[in-house]
Predict the structure.
Amino acid sequence: MNFAKNWLFNHPVTRRVKDGYFENEGIRQHYVTLGEGKLVIFIHGFPEFWYSWRHQIEALSKQYQVVALDQRGFNESVKPASKDGYRVEKLVEDVAALIKHLGRDQAVIVGHDAGAWLAWHFAALHPELTERLVILSVPHPNAMREELAERGKQYEASEYARKMAKEGAKPMFSTWQISLLLDPLAFPLYLAADRGTDPEAITSFYRLSYPQEPYALDESLPIIEAPTLVIHGRRDRFLIASGHEHNARWLKHEPKFVMLDADHFVHQEKPDEVNKVILDWLMPVTV
C-alpha cells in the first residue's frame, strides 16, 4: 500500500478500501474494493486514478461491491511494454479480465472522461458482461466523431486532444495538478500516484484511441444493449453537451440524460448530486 494512502487529510474511505491486483496480458493492475452486493466498476479518466471516485465509493459501497480500477500505466498499475498496449481494445479486455478475476458474470460499468470512452467500448464489445452503463461527460464514440466532423464547438474544445495526439507530445496536465484544483489536502496521495504514472499512458491514448481526422464513423462498433445513464456538467470546457443528442442512435434503449451545474470533473465537484442520480437509477439492480 502506498505510504500516502494513510495521509492525515485523505478522504476517510482510503482507510477502509482493500487493495487488489489482477493480471491481463502479463500486466499487473491495481484496484481498490469496498462493500458487498452487485458489482459496480468505476473507471477513471485522465490524469486521474482510483481516488477520483472516493465520494462514489463511500456512497455506493453501502449497497454494492464497488471496485475502482487504476488503468494500466496509472498509479500502482504496471505500464505495458509498448505504446500499442494503450489501445482501447486492450483496455476493454483489462475490464473483462477484472470481472473474471472477481468471479462475477456481470458488472455495472461507470466511466468518466477517458474512462467513459473505455466504458462505451466495453459495453459495445462485451454486452454479456455489462449489466448497466453509467457515462460521465463523454458522448458515444460515434456521436463524438460526428460532433468533431462539424468543426464546431467540440472541435475547438478538443484542441488539447489534437496536441497530445502528436508524436513526442507530453501530457498537458499532471495528477498532482488535479489535486490542487479539486482536493488540495490530499496532495501527497496525488503526488505519489503521479510518480507512478506513465506519461505515455495519456498521450498514447489520444494518439491511438481518440478520434482522428477525417472522423469517420466506426461502423464496426455494435449497438449497446445495456440500459445507459449519462451525466454531464453544464460548464464542461472539454466536452460539449450537444454531442449527447446523438447517443441514442447507437443504443438499444433510450438513455437517461442528466445535466448538473458542474465543470468537467462533475463527480468530484458535485458528488452528492452524482451519487443520488446513480443510486436512484440503479435501484432495480439489487443483491
Summary: The first strand starts at residue 18 and ends at 24. The chain has a mean pLDDT of 90.
